Amino acid sequence: MSFANVPVPEPVGPGQESVWDYPRPPRLEPTSRRVRVELGGVTIADSVRALRVLETSHPPTYYVHPGDVDWALVTESNQRGSFCEWKGWATYWRVDAGGAHVEAGAWSYHQPTAGFVAIADHVAFYPALFVCRLDDELVAPQPGGFYGGWVTSDLAGPFKGGPGSLGW
After folding, report:
1. 3-state DSSP helix/strand/coil percent for the chain, to nearest 5?
2. Is residue 40 predicted with pLDDT exceeding 60?
3. CB under 8 Å, gap of 24 or more: what pairs does 64-70 form?
4. pLDDT of 103-147, one tens digit each?
5. pLDDT in tens, 41-57
6. What is the residue range of 84's domain?
7. Which of 1, 71, 83, 157 is 20 to 30 A distant from 106 in Cα terms?
């Protein structure tokens, strides 16, 4: 067996947390950090009552409280859906704002599994498709385009999602 793809956690600096300390199965927790999502210069979501999902090797995924989403700009997408072994079946959302259009760029769980019932109808956004900020920091997307984690300077990786990380 080759161990060439076994990740080595990066050193954790002051004020950082390692994604390698996150649990599997994932944990859901509230955050009071400000979560903002924009498209075409228009604010889609702005919240200080989001929830974050923490899973080993992944940057956190932020789920915005449904009361903090501008639903005039968000409609259900019929192009995509997915199943998460931890959270259940996801519904995907289309966003139209500021002359821009993103199909299936956000998702939520209408009926999540028992361990994740708190995220029911909260909305997560792919940071690769929107301008996302955590507090005042511009968020980078989780590598690879499949996962929706938010990479910020207070995280130490490496992060699952890029080439060679499928088996992590």
Report:
1. 5, 45, 50
2. yes
3. 64/35, 64/37, 64/122, 64/123, 64/124, 64/125, 65/122, 66/108, 66/121, 66/122, 66/123, 69/44, 69/45, 69/123, 70/42, 70/43, 70/44, 70/45, 70/97
4. 999 999 999 999 999 999 999 999 999 999 999 999 999 999 899
5. 999 999 999 999 999 99
6. 18-155
7. 157
Query: How much is the pTM?
Result: 0.95
Number of domains in the chain: 1
Within a domain: 8: no
**For the chain, how many residues are written?**
168
- What does the pLDDT read at residue 2? 47
Question: For position 117, which CATH number holds?
Answer: 2.170.150.40
In a domain, 164, yes or no: no
3-state SS assignment for residue 64: strand
- Count how many Cα atoms sit within 13 Å of the Cα of residue 26 in the half-sphere of its side chain: 22
